[in-house]
Amino acid sequence: MEPRERVMEAAERWLAGRPTWLVRSPGRVNLIGEHTDYNEGFVLPMAIDRAIWIALRRRTDEWVRAVALDFGGEACAFPLSRLEKGGPAWSEYLKGVAWALQQAGFPLQGWEGVIAGDLPIGAGLSSSAALEMAVARAFAAVSGWGWDVKTMALLGRRAENEWVGVQCGIMDQMICAGGAAGQAMLLDCRTLEFTHVPLPAGCAVVVLDTGTRRGLVSSAYNQRRAQCQMAADALGVPALRDAGFEALEAAAGRLGAEVYRRARHVIGENARTLQAAEAMRRGDAQELGRLMNASHISLRDDFEVSGPALDAVVECAWEHPACLGARMTGAGFAGCAIALIDEGRAQEFVEQVADCFRRRTGMEPLAYVCRASDGASAWTFQGKGPSGA
Ligand code: GLA
Hints:
The protein is an alpha+beta fold. The chain is about 40% helix and about 25% strand. The chain has 11 helices and 14 strands. The protein is globular.
């Protein structure tokens, strides 16, 4: 059953009355612009058609009660005026968002709801940001204030940084909050200004999930961030966004080989991301694919955040004639890659790349075409069915 039906059905049984709101918040893939967001650079993600759903109703008191169907029906309950750590790990995202919203002065109303999704957790498709933006949408719906993409994304990130304790950048929350169907988002991570860029006609994006998982907290993510800051400091710029190859080469002797390579990735990746958006605007899928390939090689060799499974699945994709480009997506180390392919050959691509990966690694992948979808949305029930709100 689809998650939308699952939450609606469970809500009828579990809530004290019928749900009055339905919230959907998508996962994302990043087409290009990896490990550039915390360097105040550019990213080009798209929201996907896999999402977290919440069916909920407003409460008249200050309590939030939620049930997570994908965690065996585990429940949590907390009062908004006394937020404390502890309880199921997923409930920290609910409390963290409530905490960040209240810190920013948003008046919050309690609610009760049922949560479920079809977004794999910890796979690099941004399940954390999807949950944060779903919860922010739920609070916005029951508390009666409007949806501002930038504000909500920043508060979601604050919840993740300060309550959950993961030092992520702003990309995931921005695309979950502000994605648009059929389009990717070119985002300037310094100003948070964004434009939507249509996917070139005739091609599809395939998610290649290696099945391997690695949490951000335990990964080398924070170490990469620190190395980027070291490079920026050595180059005398606020962030690597402000550096070019000339300055990098001039400072090479002072950087050390590893930090030099980290910076080389970021500087190159920012340029590739802007070129990719231009290629998309021209409808040039070949060029977009070429840039995605270059991005993977740079992440693998210079930034060193790929991994054996990601490299294997990307190589299988590269070898297929329908492939225009392929790369790891998200923080890296494990999880998912994406491929840009000729839309008409999606079925054979998915089957053959899965076969290739199985043969090379002995592991079972999951490959599927994904569509660019809208960002976090809420519908209210008036009369028979849900209507936009
Ligand atoms: C994770 C983080 C993002 C971004 C990517 C790497 O997804 O949450 O902010 O840094 O890694 O591009």
